[in-house]
Design a protein that fits this description.
303 residues; seven-stranded antiparallel beta sheet; 7 helices; binds ligand 6CS; binds fe (iii) ion
């Protein structure tokens, strides 16, 4: 059972509701003494939009990361961390890549990521989830509109909005290869969704999400208030993306793949409790419950 108050109830009935956000977006707005700290301007962009795009951060590591992704695809073929597309055997997502790759483990501790994350979340952090989303050319399928936090709250027991995803483009992300779409500023309200969560919902939702996806009548007015933006950039671009930002992505019917490497960081002051949806916690590769603070490297990863 869960005796933590549910500040963000969702999937508790048949009605969808807009609720206020009760948590800050940025927990430590002033730059830290770290040379990797974000500027005031960058922090205020993230606070306002819920997303911050930093070009030319990991460009030199991209060839090695692509090679590593290919190696993992081959060596992990039938592992439970691998999820295929809903209508084919094409790989859609590979979870927990840092557990199988020293390079990816090192990047998850790179101070260019971890110092800004600690600044934004105002505390030590741990990795709650990590994945490579593959989006292969011609076959990669869409992700519908959703807030990550809604799933993490209901299915994983994340109590407050004090987490973010840092992700690296492993291919150029352009308007045609199924890039991420966001509704800038939408992270400041919470959509309590309709429905009820079954214990093994994740087995379906990671292929094709249906619960935690707001209805058109809720989305339409939000789209009038918040502009839809595509997140584009060259391979190596780093993106910070707030946990409650509404986002999704279309099918990739182009001839170009669009892979991204993602790390979800949660504050150690926001430890998971029993899932608010009453379901049993999801497996470790979706919801790491070992909240030991991550130790950042002193200097950026170089090959
Ligand atoms: O299940 C998760 O943790 C994440 N994946 C999907 C497809 N939706 C919710 C959340 O972003
Ligand atoms: Fe998401």
């Amino acid at each position: 059972m869960n005796d933590t108050t549910d500040l963000y109830p969702s999937r508790v009935g048949s009605e969808e509701k807009l609720l206020p956000r009760l948590d800050p977006v940025v927990y430590r707005p002033t730059p830290t003494s770290s040379p990797f700290s974000l500027t005031k301007q960058q922090v205020s962009t993230y606070e306002r939009d819920g997303v911050l795009i930093l070009p030319d951060y990991f460009n030199e590591l991209v060839p090695a990361l692509r090679k590593e992704t290919e190696n993992l695809k081959n060596s992990l073929q039938d592992a439970e961390e691998m999820y295929t597309e809903p209508d084919s055997d094409e790989l859609r997502t590979l979870f927990k890549p840092f557990a199988f790759s020293e390079l990816i483990d090192a990047i998850s501790r790179d101070p260019r990521i971890v110092e800004p994350v600690r600044q934004l979340l105002g505390s030590d952090v741990y990795i709650m989830q990590s994945r490579i989303n593959i989006k292969p050319a011609l076959k990669g399928q869409a992700f519908p509109w959703h807030s990550d936090f809604e799933t993490w709250h209901v299915e994983d027991g994340m109590p407050r909005m004090r987490a973010l995803t840092a992700w690296i483009m492993l291919d150029e992300n352009h308007p045609y290869n199924g890039p991420l779409y966001v509704l800038k500023g939408s992270h400041k309200r919470y959509i309590s969704c309709a429905g009820k969560t079954a214990d093994d919902n994740y087995k379906r939702s990671l292929k094709r999400q249906s619960l935690g996806v707001p209805q058109p009548q809720t989305l339409k007015p939000l789209m009038a208030d918040h502009s839809l933006s595509g997140i584009y950039g060259k391979a190596g671009t780093l993106v910070f993306h707030e946990c409650n930002l509404l986002h999704g992505s279309p099918d990739n019917i182009s001839g170009d793949p669009r892979s991204i490497l993602m790390f979800v960081y949660n504050s150690v002051d926001n430890r998971p409790v029993h899932p608010f949806g009453g379901v049993k916690p999801r497996p470790h590769y979706l919801n790491n419950r070992d909240t030991l603070p991550l130790r950042p490297l002193h200097s950026p990863v170089r090959l």
